[in-house]
Amino acid sequence: MRIGRLELAAFTLPVLLFQAIELTWRAYLPRFLNQDVGIALGAVGALLLGARLLDAMADPLLGWISDTVRTPFGRRRPWMVFGATLVPFGALLLFLAPTDASMTMIVAASLLLHIGYSFIITPHGGWGLELSDDRHQRTRIMGAKVWFAVVGSLGLLAFLALLERGFAVPLRLEMALLGWAIAVLAPLTVLVVILRFPERPAPDGAGQAGGPMMLIRAMLTNGDMRRILLLYIVTGAADAAAASIFLFLAEDGLGLKGWSATLLMIQPVMALLTLPLWSRLSVRIGRKRVLMIAYATQALAAPLLFLVPAGQPVLFGAFLVLRALGWGVDYMLLRAMIADVADEGDRGASRFSASYYGVSSITLKIAMGLGGAGGLWLIDLAGRAIWPGGGDLILRMAFAAPAMLAALIALPLLNGGRQMVPHAGTLQADA
Question: Is Chaperone included in the keywords of this UniProt record (predicted)?
Answer without folding.
Answer: no
